[in-house]
Amino acid sequence: MSTPVKRKPQSPAPETPSVIKAKTSTPGPASPGAASSAGRAKLPTSVAEASATEPTGVLSGEHWLQQGLLGPGENEDTDSALGSDIDSSTASISSSILNYRTVNGRTYHSDSVTDREYWGPNDFKHIAALDIIYHACDLMLGGKLHQAPLVESNLNNVVDIGTGSGIWAIDFADKYNKCNVIGTDISPVQPSWIPPNLQFEINDASKQWTFMENIFDFIHMQFLNGAFGDLTDVYKEAHRCCKPGGWLEHCDLSTTIKSDDGTVFPESAWGQWGKLFDAAGKKIGKIMTMADNGLMEKAMRDVGFINVEVKKFKMPISPWPKDPKQKDIGLYYYAAISSDVEGVMQYMFANVLGWTQEQITVLFAAYARRELKDTSIHGKSLGVKDAGVGGLD
Asked: How far is CA 186 from CA 76, 108, 118, in A?
């Protein structure tokens, strides 16, 4: 969800960003016979049958063991179309920052950057998948880098919080080449060949921000499910650092996958996807439902942002739509998720929920990929883009 928000104008603020150094204290297969359909828990076969049953809660890894391995040909593509000083203020990229943690073969941010848990891998495979999701959202939003009504001549300092590969920050700095753009993240995975008006910094946005007050004309945040335990605290920092009359914009996707026609069954892999992430997030005190229940909009208003605008969209998770543009968007989402289902699941399902690698890789991930390939399943993820204006304290 992306919501732009604006601050009421007050006295002019300094035009040069000043950053304070962030603290560095710092997240054997079953036999084919066991996989026979006779041994699996019965799934609903129709929308009517699904609606007649009791609501389905969070299913454990043991449930997927009971489902058994997919049989020969069952994991194939059936009907689908796809089968206060700058020098001392910025945390330096040192060997300790590059000392990534390795969990079940995937790398994660260094403990020297933050002592908070974050579920997303920082290896190339996962970062590439996030960039594909970014492209899908770019198509959905018509190629617009922002919803907020920015005026180029008024842009001096802009920050992208949780920049990831830096793809949005690079695009923005290219378009608005006369303003200073900063991208922050807890992993130094950004490229070195970047526009001259852009710089990347290692910073943990879940803690007190190291920027001076009233410095940014525009603050951008995107894809931050599971990054924060209290969104209000983060937005308070954004409000403090946003110039009066400046904008905060946050775009995120729901982990809850639904369908308008009831084809995503609650017992299915994608019907369980959001419930499992939400359950894991609650265990470690992290929000996995950024785009749900008006959370972003409420938090923006609560900390003082005004004129909050909300844009909602539904993103297909596979190329099932007939509309060519929606089909392309679904194809990109499918490519991103199917390329790294295990990476998305690994930390939360194994380390937090206690699932085995067999439950994750051999079973759940296989069912998730199979459902993605089935274009009779019309799954969608809710996207929300909130923007608000910084108001008076």
From this structure: 38, 10, 9
Residue 140's pLDDT is: 92
| Phi, psi (rounded to 5 degrees) for 43 | -95, 155
Least confident of 122-131, 141-150, 162-171: 122-131
Instruction: Give the contacts of 192 (CB within 8 A, at least 6 positions apart).
Output: none
**Residue 294: CB partners within 8 Å, gap ≥ 6?**
310
Question: Residue 385 in contact with residue 137, Cβ under 8 Å?
Answer: no
- Dump the DSSP string for 216-273: EEEEEEE--TTS-S-HHHHHHHHHHHEEEEEEEEEEEEEEEEE-TTS-S-TTSHHHHH
CA 130, CA 48: separation in Å to the nearest integer?
Answer: 36
Would you tell me how many other CB atoms lie within 10 Å of the CB of residue 48?
A: 9
Q: How is residue 244 written in tokens?
A: 């009066």
* Whole-prediction pTM: 0.77
Q: How many CB atoms lie within 10 A of CB 18?
A: 14
Among the listed ranges 26-40, 152-166, 287-301, which one has the minimum average pLDDT value?
Answer: 26-40
Q: Kindly report the length of the chain.
A: 393
At 305, is the secondary structure helix, strand, or coil? coil
CB-count exposure of residue 57 (10 Å: 0-12, 13-18, 19+): exposed
Contacts by 50-59 with C-beta closer than 8 Å and gap 24+? Answer: 50/262, 50/265, 50/266, 51/262, 55/266, 56/266, 56/267, 56/271, 56/272, 57/275, 58/272, 58/275, 58/276, 58/279, 59/267, 59/272, 59/275, 59/276
Q: Are strands 380-390 and 198-202 parallel, antiparallel or unpaired?
A: unpaired
